[in-house]
Amino acid sequence: MSTQQRSKPALTLEQKCRVIVERMAQVAREGDDIILRNNEEGNSLTVYIGFGRKTCGAEDATFEELVSDLYRLFNKQCGVSFVNLHDEDDWETIEPPLLD
Questions:
Q1: 68-22-40 Cα angle (round to 5)
Q2: Each residue of 54-88: b (16+ CB within 10 Å) or e?
Q3: Pairing of strands 34-38, 43-49
Q4: What's the pTM?
Q5: Which of 16, 58, 72, 86 is deepest in the core (most CB within 10 A)?
Q6: Per-residue pLDDT tens over the stretch 76-97
Protein backbone atom coordinates (compact mmCIF):
# COMPACT_ATOMS: atom_id res chain seq x y z
CA MET A 1 0.00 0.00 0.00
CA SER A 2 1.45 3.39 -0.93
CA THR A 3 2.00 6.25 1.51
CA GLN A 4 -0.71 8.31 -0.18
CA GLN A 5 -3.29 5.59 0.43
CA ARG A 6 -2.37 5.32 4.13
CA SER A 7 -2.20 9.01 4.91
CA LYS A 8 -5.07 10.78 6.58
CA PRO A 9 -7.16 13.15 4.50
CA ALA A 10 -6.16 16.80 4.79
CA LEU A 11 -8.22 18.90 7.17
CA THR A 12 -10.33 21.73 5.83
CA LEU A 13 -9.67 25.30 6.89
CA GLU A 14 -12.71 25.18 9.18
CA GLN A 15 -11.52 21.94 10.81
CA LYS A 16 -8.07 23.42 11.45
CA CYS A 17 -9.68 26.51 13.01
CA ARG A 18 -11.76 24.30 15.31
CA VAL A 19 -8.66 22.36 16.41
CA ILE A 20 -6.80 25.62 17.08
CA VAL A 21 -9.59 26.96 19.32
CA GLU A 22 -9.96 23.62 21.13
CA ARG A 23 -6.22 23.49 21.83
CA MET A 24 -6.14 27.12 22.93
CA ALA A 25 -8.92 26.36 25.42
CA GLN A 26 -7.00 23.31 26.64
CA VAL A 27 -3.80 25.32 27.13
CA ALA A 28 -5.75 27.99 29.04
CA ARG A 29 -7.42 25.36 31.25
CA GLU A 30 -3.99 23.95 32.06
CA GLY A 31 -2.96 27.35 33.39
CA ASP A 32 -0.85 28.94 30.64
CA ASP A 33 -1.70 32.40 29.35
CA ILE A 34 -2.13 32.87 25.60
CA ILE A 35 -1.61 36.28 24.03
CA LEU A 36 -1.95 36.98 20.31
CA ARG A 37 -0.16 40.09 19.11
CA ASN A 38 -0.54 41.59 15.65
CA ASN A 39 2.84 42.17 14.01
CA GLU A 40 1.36 44.78 11.64
CA GLU A 41 2.90 42.88 8.74
CA GLY A 42 0.00 41.38 6.82
CA ASN A 43 -1.08 37.95 8.06
CA SER A 44 1.60 37.69 10.73
CA LEU A 45 1.22 37.55 14.48
CA THR A 46 3.20 36.52 17.52
CA VAL A 47 1.68 33.97 19.87
CA TYR A 48 2.83 34.05 23.48
CA ILE A 49 2.14 30.87 25.45
CA GLY A 50 3.30 31.04 29.03
CA PHE A 51 6.92 32.14 28.72
CA GLY A 52 7.29 31.00 25.11
CA ARG A 53 6.62 32.80 21.86
CA LYS A 54 6.22 31.94 18.21
CA THR A 55 5.64 34.08 15.13
CA CYS A 56 3.02 32.60 12.82
CA GLY A 57 2.27 33.59 9.25
CA ALA A 58 4.28 36.14 7.30
CA GLU A 59 3.94 39.57 5.76
CA ASP A 60 2.87 38.07 2.44
CA ALA A 61 1.10 34.99 3.84
CA THR A 62 -2.48 34.18 3.00
CA PHE A 63 -5.05 33.65 5.73
CA GLU A 64 -4.88 29.93 4.97
CA GLU A 65 -1.10 29.92 5.53
CA LEU A 66 -1.56 31.74 8.84
CA VAL A 67 -4.13 29.16 9.94
CA SER A 68 -1.77 26.35 8.90
CA ASP A 69 1.02 27.85 11.03
CA LEU A 70 -1.32 28.20 14.01
CA TYR A 71 -2.52 24.63 13.48
CA ARG A 72 1.06 23.32 13.51
CA LEU A 73 1.76 25.30 16.66
CA PHE A 74 -1.31 24.24 18.63
CA ASN A 75 -1.90 20.75 17.25
CA LYS A 76 1.64 19.53 16.75
CA GLN A 77 3.15 21.73 19.47
CA CYS A 78 6.13 22.73 17.41
CA GLY A 79 7.92 25.98 16.98
CA VAL A 80 7.60 27.74 20.33
CA SER A 81 10.83 29.26 21.55
CA PHE A 82 11.21 29.80 25.27
CA VAL A 83 12.96 32.38 27.39
CA ASN A 84 14.14 31.77 30.92
CA LEU A 85 12.90 34.58 33.11
CA HIS A 86 15.31 33.65 35.87
CA ASP A 87 18.28 34.60 33.70
CA GLU A 88 16.97 38.11 33.10
CA ASP A 89 17.20 41.00 35.54
CA ASP A 90 14.45 43.07 33.98
CA TRP A 91 11.01 41.43 33.63
CA GLU A 92 9.72 44.29 31.47
CA THR A 93 12.21 43.56 28.67
CA ILE A 94 10.69 40.13 27.98
CA GLU A 95 7.10 40.42 29.16
CA PRO A 96 4.60 40.27 26.29
CA PRO A 97 2.92 43.64 25.80
CA LEU A 98 -0.50 44.02 27.33
CA LEU A 99 -3.44 44.35 25.00
CA ASP A 100 -5.38 47.60 25.07
A1: 45
A2: bbbbeeebeeeebbbbbbbbbeeeeeeeeeeeeee
A3: antiparallel
A4: 0.68
A5: 16
A6: 765 555 443 334 444 344 344 4
